[in-house]
Structure formats: C-alpha cells, structure tokens
Amino acid sequence: MHTLADTHITRRVAADENQTDNIAYLPSKLSKKAKSPLIDMWCHEKLVSVDVFPFNEFNAPGNRLLDRFPDRVIYDITLIEGKNAKERAKAREVCLASLNETFDYSSKSDKCAVLVTDASVPLLSTGKQAVAAWHVWHSDQFTSSFCAGGLATSDDTETLAIAEALGYLVGFVDSLSDIEEIHVFTDSTNAIHHSIDPSIHSVQSSAITMLSVLTPWMEENDNHRIIFHHVPDCEDYMFKPHRAVHNLATSTKIECGLSASRTIAFSRKQITDDVMSDWANQFRLSQYVGQHFMYPRWSVRRCNHAGAPCKPPSHLNGGTWLKDVGHSSSLTAQMVRGLTSHAPIGHYRHRFNIGDKIEACPHCEGGPPETFHHVLYRCLKHPTRPPDASRFSELSPLWDDFGKFTMDNLTAFAFKDSPAYSQTVDDSI
Asked: Domain containing 119 — which CATH number?
C-alpha cells in the first residue's frame, strides 16, 4: 500500500474503513467500472445494518488463524455416504457414536470446554427475528442462553451463535487460559468456516469477535486448540445435546419490530427472491413470453400431464432449460425454435407470410397444419415421438419428452442449411 498515491481510494478506505463517503472520491468513469465486494456493499449500504471491516489485523496474510496455527484448528466433518439407505443409516450411527463419545469426555473434563449451538430462522412473514442459541459445558456444568439474530440467513445466525457462545464461555469459566481444548458442535458447515474467516462476508463482525478471543488464547500455549464437530441433521439418529439447543432456539420468539438488524446475505437473498417471484409472475403472461411459447412441464406427473406444473424460470446453474442442452449451439437453437414456435414450419410461414405461406405439413397425407404439436406428436417425418402422444397432443410438452425428441430428431425445427440437418441427410444417404 505504501506505493500508492496519497489520493488513491484504497488509502482513503484504509484511513477510515467504514466511511462510505470515500466512494465519492472515485472518478466518475472509474466508479462505474470498479467492481469488488467492498464497493458492492457500499452501493447497498442502506439495505444492511451490519458493519464490515475490509482492513483488519486478523485478515493480513500470515496473521490469519489458519496461517499461524494450522494444526490447532481441527475440523471434524464426516460426510454421510453409502450406496443405499442401509449403508447411510450405518454411517449416521457410527458418526453419532463418535459425537457422543467426544461430548461425554470433553463436557466432563477440567481441561475442555464444549459449545453446542443452533439457530432458528422463522419465515419473514411471521414478523419474528432469527434466534441464536447455545449451551456451554465445562467440568460437567453447563449454562445456556440465546440472543436475537435480526433478519439473517441460517448460516449467518449459526455463525453468530458460535461467536456468542465463545464470548459466553469467557465469563463462565474462571480462566480461559486453563482450557486446553474448545469443542464446538454445530449442524452448519458454512458457519464452521465463516466463524474464523476474517475476510469480507455477511457476518465478518462475528468472526472478528471470535478471533479476538481465540488468537491470544492460542498464543498463550502450544497445547491450546479448537475442534469443530459437524452434527448431521437426522431425526432417526439425533445428537441429544444438539437437540436440546435446537428446542431452545425454535421455542424462542422475538418480534422484529423496526430496529432488527439486517445482514448482507439476508438482503441479497431477499432481493433475489423478489426478482425470481416477479420473473415467475411475468412468465405467466403471454405479453412477456409470447402467445405461442410452449411452456414445458415437469415430467414427474406423467400419468396426469394436464395437471403437471410448468417448470419455473431459474437463474441457477444455467437456468431451467439451457443447463440440459450442454454446449451444443445447434441443439440450443433447435430447442429455442421449438419452444417459441419460431421454426421453419408451416405455422410460422403462414403466420408471417414467409415464402410459399403454405401451412399444411408436406410430409403427412391430407395436409394437416404443420404446428409445433403436429411436429412433436404426429408428423410422419419424425417417427420417434413421445409416449402417450395421442393423449396429450394439444398440451405443452413434458420437458424430458421434448429433450429426447429433439435429440432423436435433429432435423425437427431445424433449417435445411443447419449443421445438424446436413449431417442427418448425409448419414441417410
């Protein structure tokens, strides 16, 4: 940083890291192009009420807890795996036995402390805040408490519970220096990693609070270490200490009111949910998707195709449809032409007065209209058609059926000069 000019935005931020007005010093052209988590949070600062600390002593390279004490931060995260339900049940049983053994030993030891944490995040419509709850054990003695988490996600509240439980431990024991091991039991792997991560994230302040206790504690003695235990979520093989904390969190109700804090992750999720809800509502309007859009349906209700729900739009993992066509541009084009009925078929030519304007199908006797449904369910040119075609010939297609149809019939909804069409014709010759 010492090589930067005195007027550089980074220097100004470092001088007063939470002063959002510093963003005004950016030149107008640069402010439009500059992208970073810090600038993003400043642009939406009114949506959140939790401070962030871009520059802090715990986040400097070499000063991070995992950099200094990599062998004394231990993660006990067991994945429940198995080829069938019986093997997975056995894995849960083994994991539960290990957790119980560790808890029984550490909760009774004078050299160990146990933090069992959980969170409850009610629906926003209930008007209730998230609740972080914890039990603290030491020398077979325990105490419990909870705090309001404001408007937050489950991972945010779980992280808050871990940080608050550690602070509660400091006042519960005579001297934290006498504790050699701190065992944390939680059912959130994201909270485990966020709790000691000093970089910018939604609950960075909780992590910094926790690190301000852990760092000097680990510096005192080479035997001091912290172990994070992940508790699998399963009703059949429940970990009773965690279930007790869970009951405390879910039974506690705190009104939001007008002063509840908001975390960054919560605000981001709320914005995303609102956008997705509006998008889904728009997709129901013909003015948005077009009058001839063939809205694909879920294939889980084949026996009741008419009652099968339409696939909602999504922005995740390639969206609702594009993720299934891979990287094939020809297959993507074929899918889009088919679903939008903007394809080289008679219905489209007749509708827009293109070419010979003939709507009749040239491949079928009697010249029925060459519509999307005709191509998909009846056309003799494409003999490989979806099952039960006669029953659902006027409905929008099941997605799996439509995808298989386009893969089996590469000339359907394709132009004659397309690579797929040419390749199919060459193969037939």
From this structure: 3.30.420.10
Contact 183, 115 (CB under 8 A): yes
Beta strand 181-186 pairing with 225-230: parallel
Residue in the block written with tokens 């510093």? 22
- 38 and 62 assigned to the same domain: no
Supply the range of the domain harboring residue 17. 9-47
Tokens 């506690």 correspond to 252
| Closest by CA position to 117, among listed 66, 24, 41, 182 | 182
**pLDDT tens digits along 359-385:** 888 888 887 888 888 888 888 888 777
Q: Do both 420 and 391 map to the same domain?
A: yes
Residue 20 Cα distances to 27, 42, 422, angstroms: 15, 6, 59
- In sequence order, the β-bridge partners of residue 186 are 230
pTM across the whole model: 0.73
* Structural domains counted in the chain: 3
State the first-to-last Cα distance of the chain, in angstroms, to the nearest integer.
Answer: 69
Phi and psi of 132, rounded to 5°? -105, 125
Please state, as a whole number, how many other Cβ atoms lie within 10 Å of the Cβ of residue 24.
9
Q: Single out the residue of 339, 324, 133 nearest to residue 244, CA to CA.
A: 133
pLDDT digit string, tens, across residues 46-62: 566 677 777 788 888 88
Name the residue with higher pLDDT: 94 or 295.
94
Quote the CA–CA distance of 372 and 346 in Å, as a whole number.
9
**Percentage of the chain surpassing pLDDT 70?**
81
Per the prediction, the chain carries an average pLDDT of 81
